[in-house]
């Protein structure tokens, strides 16, 4: 630890960090800007269309689509915490982010990331009730319970991000303010600190196991019951219909946890910060961008709602 960092007054000296991004080559900046701008616009537009389609069609005012619209909204917010700042920095040819801006970005990134995690688990529970208890589905998944699940998810995500952000505020930083990432990722910030980070690391690992592991365990339990219930259906058509109701969500779960696990393994194997930053794009940008396609391409209800929203009414005998 450097001697100049031991006093509490050192915290007031922090004014800004430098986000190093993916590459320091000026020639690559226009390519990176165009790529991320395209992905961001697709993410916002795709998720916004899902929200508009669900809100405009009374046939989609069900628990499943209620949770899907919330997931789409969270995905827009999740991506918006990181990408616009990176695009702005490229545009003005700067890598600077203020200390307050960095803490704020970190808080909302953890908040919306945790909320995404909870919503995916809640949607798995919704599919479990729909398939394993179809006759009591609307009784169990009533508006009060749906609203309560959203509120509880919001509270838990907010508490998690608040605790982790407050602990980071206690850290002291010496002379290295360069973050080898394109946003203020908490792990990278903790590694830059010259004060004791034992508590930060313990909290990060504890939260990862408790929240991430707990949500994944709930999803796996729900789908184990779903598979068991589907196996008990006698007709093959009935099995296909039951499975098709959760196929999209299962794809999102696989993408969400698969990319997260891939990023974790890649960061553990390679010591390159740029490689870790590139890998994190999978769950910070690519997954929110692909979710609307996963839920809409094979979902006739979403397709029909989108056609109605754009005034494309179906003629008699035409498949919508």
- Principal-axis shape equals globular
Question: How much helical structure, as a percent, in the residues?
Answer: over 70%
The total strand number stands at 3
Biggest β-sheet description: 3 strands, mixed
**End-to-end C-alpha gap:** 66 Å
Helix/strand-derived category reads mainly alpha
Task: Please list the strands of the largest sheet in the order they lie side by side.
Answer: 2-1-3
Query: What multimeric state do the chains show?
Result: single chain
Strand residue percentage: under 5%
Cα gyration radius (Å): 22 Å
If helices are DSSP runs of H or I spanning 4 or more residues, what is the number of helices? 11
Explain the layout of strands and helices.
Elements: E1 16-19, H1 29-56, H2 63-80, H3 83-91, E2 96-98, H4 99-132, H5 137-140, H6 143-169, E3 178-179, H7 186-192, H8 198-231, H9 236-269, H10 273-297, H11 300-309
Parallel strand pairs: 1-3
Antiparallel strand pairs: 1-2
Describe the structure.
The chain is globular, with a radius of gyration of 22 Å. Helix 1 runs antiparallel to helix 2, helix 1 crosses helix 11 and helix 4 runs antiparallel to helix 6. The N terminus is likely disordered. The protein is mainly alpha-helical and 320 residues long. Strands 2-1-3 form a three-stranded mixed β-sheet. The chain is built from eleven helices and three strands; from the N terminus they run E-H-H-H-E-H-H-H-E-H-H-H-H-H.
């Amino acid at each position: 630890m450097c001697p100049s960092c031991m006093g509490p007054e050192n915290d007031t000296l922090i004014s800004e960090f430098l986000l190093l991004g993916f590459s320091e080559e000026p020639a690559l900046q226009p390519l990176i800007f165009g790529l991320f701008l395209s992905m961001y616009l697709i993410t916002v537009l795709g998720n916004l269309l899902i929200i508009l389609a669900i809100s405009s069609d009374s046939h989609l005012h069900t628990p499943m689509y209620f949770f899907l619209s919330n997931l789409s909204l969270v995905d827009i917010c999740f991506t918006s915490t990181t990408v616009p700042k990176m695009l702005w920095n490229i545009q003005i040819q700067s890598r600077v982010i203020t200390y307050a801006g960095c803490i704020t970005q970190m808080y909302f990134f953890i908040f919306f990331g945790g909320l995404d995690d909870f919503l995916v688990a809640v949607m798995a529970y919704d599919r479990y009730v729909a398939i394993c208890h179809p006759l009591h589905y609307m009784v169990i998944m009533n508006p009060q319970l749906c609203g309560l699940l959203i509120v509880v998810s919001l509270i838990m995500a907010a508490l998690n991000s608040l605790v982790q952000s407050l602990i980071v505020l206690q850290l002291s930083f010496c002379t290295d303010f360069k973050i080898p990432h394109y946003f203020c990722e908490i792990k990278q910030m903790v590694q830059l600190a010259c004060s004791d980070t034992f508590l930060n690391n313990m909290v990060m690992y504890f939260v990862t196991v408790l929240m991430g592991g707990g949500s994944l365990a709930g999803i796996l339990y729900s789908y184990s019951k779903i598979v068991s219930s589907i196996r008990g259906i006698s007709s093959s058509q009935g099995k296909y219909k039951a499975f098709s109701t959760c196929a999209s969500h299962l794809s999102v779960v696989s993408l969400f946890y698969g990319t997260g696990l891939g990023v974790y393994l890649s960061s553990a194997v390679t010591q390159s910060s740029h490689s870790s930053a590139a890998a994190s794009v999978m769950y910070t940008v690519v997954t929110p961008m692909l979710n609307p396609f996963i839920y809409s391409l094979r979902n006739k209800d979403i397709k029909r709602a989108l056609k109605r929203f754009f005034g494309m009414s179906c003629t008699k005998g035409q498949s919508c």
